[in-house]
Write a structure and sequence with these properties.
Elements: E1 2-10, E2 13-19, H1 30-37, E3 47-52, E4 59-65, E5 70-71, H2 75-84, E6 89-93, E7 96-103, E8 106-112, E9 135-136, E10 139-140, E11 143-146, E12 150-155, H3 164-172, E13 182-190, E14 193-200, E15 204-206, H4 210-222, E16 229-234, E17 237-243, E18 249-253, E19 256-264
């Protein structure tokens, strides 16, 4: 079975998009997703994206990380898919229905309302999620936010100095996080600017993480460190994050199509 794909990225966070809205595809297993995402023997990507029909939105989007695991949300992929369909779309995800629209600055996504209760992150036991009484080496007292998927955010003096490839997987797999967690290390430059690096659950170090930028911005806002709209600078580029009075997060940034191709499904099954 010959299957067409579209390679896209948002700030270097890259995706292979499969569209099964008009032509159904076989079930995507963890092993197939992992094989397609492999950068040496597959097409290569951070996330595999599957578009399917939906009764509640224009279409649905499923997200598989580089390790083959399915996850709830991906802000950069949502922007990329929004670009793919022309900008304005309501997209059903496990995290809820997300709305995208085209702006002068790229694609804007209504990412919904963040959650802060310990059992909404989720954490293994109750604690204050604005300043968690825990730490790993020099990283201490993070904030926890769920923006469709779970994040912890550490505010430190120099985010570039952290050996995130070493400490990231330790925190991701800590028993405190029953569904694992995305790890963000952030430096507040001023009231409108944050510098961020992310260890992404199931992916590793990433050039950009849209939900990580949202979680970090909201955590900084809750702590009174920044205004209600900020620019978050990631290794791959910048995202504009706003948190409205209605508690909904808006993320705006670029997305691009890289190339298109096709593959034989049986080669990866």
């Amino acid at each position: 079975m010959r299957v067409e794909f579209i390679k896209m990225h948002g700030l270097g966070n890259d995706f292979v998009v499969l569209d099964s809205r008009a032509r159904s595809l076989p079930e995507i297993t963890r092993s197939i997703a992992r094989a397609l995402a492999d950068r040496h023997t597959g097409i290569g990507c951070d996330q595999l994206i599957l578009l399917t029909p939906s009764d509640n939105a224009d279409f649905a989007m499923r997200i598989f990380n580089h390790d083959g695991g399915e996850v709830e949300a991906c802000g950069n992929a949502t922007r990329a898919v929004g670009l793919l369909v022309g900008g304005d779309a309501y997209i059903q995800t496990t995290a809820g229905v997300l709305h995208t629209c085209k702006t002068d600055s790229g694609i804007a996504v209504d990412m919904g309302v963040p959650h802060f209760e310990w059992d909404e992150i989720p954490l293994g036991y109750p604690m204050d999620t604005l300043s968690m009484p825990v730490g790993w080496e020099d990283l201490e007292r993070p904030a926890a936010v769920n923006v469709g998927n779970p994040h912890v955010v550490f505010f430190i003096e120099d985010s570039d100095a952290v050996l995130l490839d070493e400490i990231g997987p330790i925190i991701e797999h800590d028993p405190l996080f029953p569904e694992r967690v995305n790890v963000n290390v952030a430096t507040v430059e001023d009231r409108q600017t944050v510098r961020l690096r992310v260890w992404e659950r199931g992916v590793g170090l990433t050039r950009a993480c849209g939900t990580g930028a949202c979680a970090t911005a909201v955590a900084a806002m809750r702590r009174g460190l920044v205004e209600r709209e900020v620019t978050v600078h990631l290794p791959g580029g910048a995202l504009r994050i706003g948190w409205g009075e209605d508690q909904r997060i808006t993320m705006t940034g670029p997305a691009s199509e890289s190339f298109r191709g096709s593959f034989e499904w049986e080669d990866y099954a």
